[in-house]
Amino acid sequence: MTEMRSALVVGATGVVGSALVKLLCDSGKYVAVNVISRRKLNFTHPKLNVKIREFDQIADQDMEFAHEIFCCLGTTIKKAGSQSEFEKVDFEYPLSIAALAKNHGVAHFIVISAMGANDKAMAHYSRVKGKLEKELIAMNFPQLSIVRPSLIIGDRDEFRLGESIGAKVMKVMNPLLVGTMAKYRSISAKQIALAMLNIALNGEKQSVAIYTSEQLASMKMPAEVEIGDTTSADRLFNWDKYKDEDLPPVDKEVIIDRSKIKEVNQKNGK
């Protein structure tokens, strides 16, 4: 019998996260899809369980067992209202969630970063993404997968003028970006979601893996194994296998170093 899996998604109302939740629910590989969200989803499914929480109030008891956690949090400075609020969403919240995941024994953390992420970058956006990657790597997850998409194309709840213009430009430019320039092609949110599912199921088992936008764009849906009976989800998913003594070692020493968060503000002269 094929082993069934459980996933936890944070940032499930965004353009990538919402597509990912639907893929996970449709996948024959997953029997439980848990979501932590600030608002209700406009999607329901028998496998889906949603907890409504503010991201700065997520506690240890909110973390469900998961084979992997997908962190799809992300915003823009314009939408957030300030650089400090942007840093909360794109740096502080993912880092806090990762710490809880590590303490809970989650073996695989999959996070959306961005092309050009670098903790020493001149651009504030790229620098924050780079700092997040650096701190996540330092947490020493058994498996950390970082996806770095280029411009993300998709139907968002809110209108973003810059991305709308960029999408129109890239529709013309994408066919012209070949060879070493192919990595700059825009990529759809649905393709990123598909790639993240592929990474969870078929990705190389290594401590840190970074996937470029070009790699994400080339990934296809992994083959599914059909389930030929109507066995209940509880029976398909062998919960007994995941007793405390069988889980990866829980690192109770993982905490958020708030000084790392302050560094981002200090770089901006705050």
Describe the structure.
- α1 (15-26) packs across α6 (189-202) and α3 (83-103) packs parallel to α4 (124-138).
- This protein has a single domain (5-248), classed as Rossmann fold.
- It has nine helices and nine strands.
- The strands form two sheets. A seven-stranded parallel sheet has the order 3-2-1-4-5-6-9, sandwiched between helices. Strands 7-8 form a two-stranded parallel sheet.
- With 270 residues, the protein is an alpha/beta fold.
- The radius of gyration is 18 Å and the shape is globular.
- Mean pLDDT is 80; it is low at 224-248.
- The chain has helices spanning 15-26, 77-80, 83-103, 124-138, 161-173, 189-202, 213-218, 233-236, 258-267; strands at 5-10, 30-37, 48-52, 68-71, 108-112, 143-148, 152-153, 187-188, 208-212.
Enumerate how many helices there are, as a single number: 9
Overall pLDDT score: 80
**Rounded Rg:** 18 Å
CATH class: Alpha Beta
Q: How far apart are the termini?
A: 56 Å
Question: What is the β-strand count?
Answer: 9
The oligomerization state is single chain
Structural class by sheet pairing and helices:
alpha/beta
Question: Which range does the strand content fall in?
Answer: 15-25%
Report the helical percentage. 25-40%
Count of domains: 1
Overall 3D form: globular
CATH topology: Rossmann fold
How are the strands ordered across the major sheet?
3-2-1-4-5-6-9
Largest sheet: 7 strands, parallel
Name of the CATH architecture: 3-Layer(aba) Sandwich
Q: Could you name the CATH homologous superfamily? A: NAD(P)-binding Rossmann-like Domain
Unreliable spans are 224-248
